[in-house]
Amino acid sequence: MGGAMSDVDAPAPPPESTPERAADTPPRLLVVGCGGIGGVVAAHLLEQGHDVTALTTNPRIADAISINGFRVRGDGGPGTVHGRVVRSLTECAKAGGRPFDYVLLATQPPQVEEAAREVLPHLAPRGAMVCFQNGLCEERIGRIAGTERTLGAIVAWGASMIEPGLYERTSPGGFVLGRHDGASDPRMDELSRILEAIGPTTVTNNLAGARWSKLAINCAISSLGTIAGDRLGVLMRHRHVRRLALEIMTEVVAVARASRVRLEKVAGTLDLDWIALTEAERQVAGSAGLVAKHGLLLAVGARFRRMRSSMLSAIERGRTPAVEFLNGEVISRGAELGVPTPVNEAIRDEVLVIASGRRRPAMANARALYDRTRNLTASSTIPRSAVVTRTSEPAVADEGVTAVNGDAPRDPPISAA
Ligand SMILES: NC(=O)C1=CN([C@@H]2O[C@H](COP(=O)(O)OP(=O)(O)OC[C@H]3O[C@@H](n4cnc5c(N)ncnc54)[C@H](OP(=O)(O)O)[C@@H]3O)[C@@H](O)[C@H]2O)C=CC1
Ligand SMILES: CC(C)(CO)C(=O)C(=O)O
């Protein structure tokens, strides 16, 4: 994972003499990867009339889009949109034209560094690579393209590819943009206006805080979705899945705190500091705080019920799962900082068993994992500095979502994943 910077990785800073793109010249956009997220993004941007090229290395997806266009179903989708799709940038280079101002990286995390290296020669000197990946990929892409040519875009919505070129947007939501170094950057304002076509987009100077909150969600939801093989709505109806999710997120929050990250609410609404279990909640069943947290997850499951793990989709296509960039990243950083992460370790191992084909995704896997990890959580102690001791109200925006069964004492409001 990660690795030291090599000569190959050394970023080439833009030469000072390179002219800015003229203000009246529209940006050229490259979408790299036409799976769930890349397909929906490309379709929306094309519909808005942007200059978009879509790159996919998957010939079945390329053929389907060339023939039938990007076909998008679900929340506010643009329907069917036709546009340029290429399998390599060599054909673009031969056709001439300006380099790309924004390269929207929409591959899974295990492929993103290779993809970035391949497209780097086609990035305008003052252009930017944009990371859509869950996990902490800006650090990796910054080593390839340079920190000042790398932007993070947290995707706070879901999408799946049902068949090549056919996309389902599985939830509403938008983006949070930021730079790994926290710097402000006028390109984020331009990019924010462009991405508004897909969903509400905000800019943060605390990308790390927002990334770690989203990482906590993915370590729970994407990994449990892979293990159990079902959509979020079904997952969250099971008390033992919710408990696993809470334990996973608690460990991630502990590692984030030990890393001195100030957690941000995801898309301004979901407060991971509140969700993390207190030491008392971890040890004793049935407290008011614990019940409220179950209620919140029920509400999240109800609102985002169609979300499906992109890691599961990648495994189904025979790809390496992103688990080392999610739970694996937390485990290795936790080990460096002395924060135990036994539940994330068990989850990571189970995802790897499923990816190897030795077990099929099934709800029974989650139940077995819950039984196996109960003793682990009772015996593992998170260092005091990383433990949540307060009990506060959930700071979430009110959209009046109703919990799906009687487990919750009230209906905690929620508006984003
Ligand atoms: N799906 C979701 O709901 C969400 C996803 N994300 C993040 O967005 C990113 C994309 O997710 P998603 O669209 O679901 O992933 P998918 O696996 O559906 O799509 C990724 C696509 O990228 C292709 N690809 C791989 N390498 C390259 C390359 N070098 N050049 C061009 N294309 C390449 C893959 O090809 P092949 O088909 O051959 O594997 C695949 O089609 C992920 O990193 C994920 O973390 C974030 C939030 C939500
Ligand atoms: C949409 C969500 C949260 C679903 O698990 C996701 O981000 C992913 O799987 O990549």
Give short descriptive properties of this protein:
alpha/beta, binds NADPH dihydro-nicotinamide-adenine-dinucleotide phosphate, disordered N terminus, N-(1-d-carboxylethyl)-l-norvaline Dehydrogenase, domain 2, eight-stranded mixed beta sheet, Rossmann fold, disordered C terminus, 417 residues, 2 domains, binds ketopantoate
Could you explain the architecture of this structure?
The protein has 2 domains: 28-205, NAD(P)-binding Rossmann-like Domain (Rossmann fold), CATH 3.40.50; 209-406, N-(1-d-carboxylethyl)-l-norvaline Dehydrogenase, domain 2 (Orthogonal Bundle). Mean pLDDT is 87; it is low at 1-10, 13-18 and 389-417. It is 42% helix and 14% strand. The strands form 2 sheets. The chain has an 8-stranded mixed β-sheet, sandwiched between helices. It has 417 residues and is α/β, with parallel strands linked by helices. Helix 7 (207-228) runs antiparallel to helix 9 (239-258). NADPH dihydro-nicotinamide-adenine-dinucleotide phosphate is lined by residues 32-38, 55-58, 61, 106-109, 111, 114-115, 118, 132-134, 155, 158-159, 161, 310, 313-314, 317, 319, 322. Its EC number is 1.1.1.169. Belongs to the ketopantoate reductase family. Residues 30-181 form the Ketopantoate reductase N-terminal domain.
